[in-house]
# Entry
Amino acid sequence: MSTRHILLGLLKAGPSHGYDLKRRHDERFPQARPLAYGQVYTTLQRLVRDGLAEVDGTDADGGPERTLYRSTQAGAHELARWAGEIAAPAPFVANEIFAKVVVSILADGDPAAYLRAQRAAHMERMRELTAVKTAPHSDLATVLSADYALNHLDADLRWINTTAARLTHLTAEVDTA
Amino acid sequence: MSNKGDTSAPLLAGRDLVKAHGRTRALCGASVDLRAGEILAVTGTSGSGKSTLLHCLAGIVRPDQGSVAYDGQRLDRLPEKRLSELRRSDFGVVFQFGQLIPELTAFDNVALPLMLAGASRTEARSRAGEWLERFGVLGQQELRPGEMSGGQAQRVSLARALVTGPKVVFADEPTGALDSLASEQVMTALTHTARESGTAVLLITHDAQVAAYADREVRLSDGATVAAEVTA
# Structure
């Protein structure tokens, strides 16, 4: 995920300081890993260096002084370019689950048992996400985020089911040979 | 509600169920527990025996071997008349295609089971209205099934299944013919209502996203429960 573009998107609402950007990021993307403060400030400095954001004064608001940032015209153009850019339909072949199954087959392990356990873990996570999504008064960002995660977990599950079936057929063929 | 680790006696228990259709064995020793108020998903590939399991547990067909116990009674040994009464009083059923009566309005489809159970027309209409409202389809009350969207018709089917206050609802691929958003509306309505009313649900589905609405999952493979996941 492109943190710099997400911060640019959050700055579109108006000038903001790093602490506020981190808080809004974590609210908007509840299923994502929370942003570290250091990452926020490093990214903001790079945006300024590249002319995509600029300092817009400071804001004390009764507490410590904080630097406010705002998006530049170039930042707005970059955000629009990125938002319209097609993401590569990546083959996802480096996925850890895939790697474990392949290694397990190669090393004469028990890939079927692993797939059953992984499937149960995926289903547990899907139940949690479904509960979050369907809770009364869930906001749109939470629902969209949960939908996204659910659909990706579901894709993993389909692959797990197909692979488990292939392993069963393979074992049956070996047993009857 | 989650029933993980719940050791209370099951409301409905199928044990070592075997059922053949002609020479094809649909169930080969499946065992399932459903606890009061629990939402249980039964998943598996096509032909794994999910629907046959539902039919045995709901007393629609009798298993060739094994037992089905409901609330202390052996369903597989009950005389047909008693079984039929019990299905009407304690069970609700929803299928992939709601199987509403096409000539009746949504309102009359939901009121009908109450009138068959002896409720007056006034009482039946009042309660039918309440349940259509709970499922968000009161505005469609005067429409016939053919005039509603698939999702609306399925929510009417749910209202019909729950209007008599069953202890168990059996839902066989209730969202199988729906798109993802209509499916979400139907599953949210079903699970929220079941949890509110304490109704147990046995949900048959091949769709993991639908199964994720349940408290837990039992997986069938070649007519038998996959042991490692029965107690998940």
